[in-house]
Amino acid sequence: MMDKMGCNSKQEKMQSVMTSTGFIWDSQMLEHKCLWDTEHPERPERITSVIARCQELGLLNRCKILAPRKATEAEIAAVHSPAQFGTLDKICSSNNNNMGKFEQLELEAAASKYDSVYFHPSTCDSALLASGSAIELTQNILDDKIRNGMAIIRPPGHHAMESTFSGYCFFNNVAIAARQALASGRAKRILIVDWDVHHGQGTQQLFYDDPRVFYISTHRYENGLFWPNLKESNYNWIGDGEGIGFNCNIPLNKIGMGNTEFLTTWHQILLPLAFQFNPDLVLISAGFDSALNDPKGEMQLTPQCYPHLLSPLMGLANGRVAVILEGGYCLNALAEGAALTLRTLLGDPCPLLEPIADPMPELVETLLNCMTVLQSHWTLGLGLKESKQGADLCVHVPTLRYDYVPVQLDKYPTRDGNPVTSFEECSPHDDRLNQLILTTNLAVPSSKLGIAFSVAANYDSSSKFKQSLSITGEIQIGLEPELKFSRPFGLMAAIVGGQCTSGIAIMSKVETIEVCKYAMDVLKLARILFIDWNGESDIAKGTLLKNPRVLYVSMRETSCQLTSGINFRWVENNNDDVSDANYLAALASVILPIAYEWCPDLILVAGPEEGREGGYGFCALPTSPAGFSKWQSIFGFEFTEQCLLPTLCRAVFGKATTEFFQQQC
Ligand SMILES: [Zn+2]
To answer: How far apart are the C-alpha atoms of 238 and 282, rounded to whole Å?
Structure first.
């Protein structure tokens, strides 16, 4: 891959990437509200609570604020039937003035024709603004005016179907933005990740036979008992015609699922699919109703986990990610989840999480079902095939269960039974949520990346090197030269001391082991994950493997005697032509789950040899979910040809690392 791209083209590409984060919203969208049910959960405070928290954390000042606009009739018509706009326009404009009791009753009667919808005289304008804002955000990203961004908009969109309103949704904002992106010719493969707790059946239907759009949704399902109660939300709906294999439903059949279940889903299914699909644009249907305390979702995802779901996706599509608000009804959890998501788009490190545990058996069943139906289209289950569960995958016989008994209604109920929960209201998870919000450390080290050269590395072209890193002024070259340790030790101390998020040290492997020992003996770290990208076991023999405080991962193991640690032997490929895709799969489905469970204090990576296949896969590490921003990390290099280094630096700064080609593992 490196030969194809070459050092120079890489650097040029790197310099052309814009770095800012866009933010779009409009106060006009606060006018849309339910006149006959003031407790309705889809309410204006959903936006104001997010804005307030983002301001409190100083995030909006750091964003490029985009000007919202209404979507045009033609843009709506690219997704919806003509009647969709016509009907909404008519309902709203005929009730524009003199809102009395009678007019309210008229609006409520109109709403009763649709499943879970209310109308307000301003609804059409708000819905057009929401869709127009989603388009603006996406177009700004595709025009390279911003790198990524967030749209805090309502009404939401993912339940809106081609010709009907549904589930608080009128126009499908994400689908409309995707259609415009495709029509502009600037996006050819769009990944839509829908992490709202409800299935976005509207989005699924709109792209069901379209291989250009891969729709992946996690949603509460309970075998059909949870709204929208559809058979088509189950795992066996994987697309149709040319789009077969480009739709993935991950139905959650039990309430109470949390960080463990969502991260496991990401590692075992979502990320392997996303890496292989290799999108050129990522759209997130970002509902926050899977969050702890949400009265609708009844899941337990902590707001602090959303950055970990987003972070790895930012390594795709050259960093082109648009996060577009859908649901979320516990105002506290919504505001926190959305603000932390925006913070991640801005490149701040992911907050620390509690260690994950074993996922619920209901989730394992779902994941095995999903893998089984998708395995003829994508490579999945790499992490399971070698294990005991892997045997289960080989013999796994998925069963299809659908418990919902449909009822025919003359009209739909128009008053929602589910209240939102505010800060003051009690719920079983309120204490935990408030505690998490108050105690999560959101401090950001003053330096994102430190760079150090060891004396032994004898790296004499550091000025050329600095030039190649001119992408940012944030890089500190050579930390703390007065420290009595050689520079890599100083860098390590700066990382552990919280002055610096990550570091790159140009040093030999012997020195890398010395740095590891220093972290244990002097800095007193209890758990160090040591990833050896070259995996020559001789460096690990002796000290590292015998020490229970070090978890050693060899990515390219040649010795058959090595029995401790984690060793990738790549037997079939004889270790020689292992591609980026293999490394990414290993990273997602093996290393990350272990890292999230073990929670190391530090991740130490010995870098790959220049010119070897898999080098750029290595550069995916910093944007991977283990947050190599989440845990402080240091990358050691012993090589003097520094082609990989700028790419790695870009990755540390949250930029996409490479264009992954669609490869089979
Ligand atoms: Zn939802």
So the answer is: 19
Residue 233 CA to chain centroid, in angstroms? 21
**Of the listed ranges 405-414, 428-437, 473-482, the one predicted with least confidence:** 473-482
> Residue 248 is which amino acid?
C
Q: Which of 294, 257, 582 is nearest to 421 (CA)?
A: 294
For the chain, count helices (H), then strands (E): 25, 16
Instruction: Report CA(303)–ligand 1 centroid distance (Å).
Output: 15
- Please give the distance, rounded to the nearest whole angstrom, from the Cα atom of residue 554 to the centre of ligand 1: 41
> Cα torsion for 176, 181, 182, 186, to the nearest 10°?
180
CA–CA dist 301, 317 (Å, integer): 26
CA 585 / ligand 1 centre spacing (Å):
30
Residue 409 CA to ligand 1 centre (angstroms): 22
Helical spans, DSSP H, in 94-234: 101-111, 123-142, 173-183, 201-206
- How many CA atoms lie within 13 Å of 113's alpha carbon, on the beta-carbon side? 10
Q: How far is CA 323 from CA 185, 193, 253, 630, in A?
A: 21, 9, 26, 20
* Rounded CA separation 613/598 (Å): 29
Q: Are 211 and 246 in contact (CB under 8 A)?
A: yes
Whole-number Å distance, alpha carbon 200 to ligand 1 midpoint, is: 8
Cα–Cα dist 383/369, whole Å = 16
**Model pLDDT for residues 218-230, shown as the tens digit of each residue:** 999 999 999 999 9
Residue 534 Cα, ligand 1 centroid: separation in angstroms?
Answer: 44
Cα separation, 121 vs 99, in Å, equals: 9
Residue 429 Cα to ligand 1 midpoint, Å, equals: 19
- For residue 564, count other CB atoms closer than 10 A to its CB: 12
Residue 504: φ, ψ to 5°: -125, 125
Centre of ligand 1 from the C-alpha of residue 163, in Å: 20
**Torsions phi, psi for 659 (to 5 deg):** -90, 105
Q: Which amino acid is at 103?
A: E
Phi-psi region of 423 (alpha: psi -120 to 50; beta: other; left: phi over 0): alpha
533-554 residue pLDDT tens: 776 656 555 667 778 899 888 8
Ligand 1 centroid–CA 289 distance in Å is 6
Are 70 and 132 contacting, i.e. CB atoms less than 8 angstroms apart?
yes
pLDDT digits (tens, 9 = 90+) for 54-92: 999 999 999 999 999 999 999 999 999 999 999 999 999
Q: Would you state the structure tokens that stand for residue 79, as one six-digit string?
A: 């997704």
Return the pLDDT at 455: 65
Q: CB burial class (10 A; 0-12, 13-18, 19+) of residue 443?
A: exposed
- The length of the chain in residues reads 665
Gap between the Cα atoms of 400 and 373, Å rounded? 12
Residue 151, strand partner residues? 24, 324
**Residue 345 amino acid letter:** L
* Count of C-beta atoms within a 10 Å radius of residue 133: 27
Angle at 539 between CA 543 and CA 614, to 5 degrees: 135
pTM metric for this prediction: 0.90
Active-site residue set: 159
Determine how many CB atoms are found less than 10 A away from the CB of residue 278.
17
For residue 443, what are the contacts with CB-CB under 8 A and spacing of at least 6?
498
Q: Extract the tokens encoding 591.
A: 């290393």
The protein residues having their C-beta less than 5 angstroms from ligand 1 (an ion) are: 196, 198, 287, 289, 327
Q: What is the DSSP string of 489-520?
A: HHHHHHHHTTSEEEEEEE--HHHHHHHHHHHH
Distance 194 CA to ligand 1 centre (A): 10
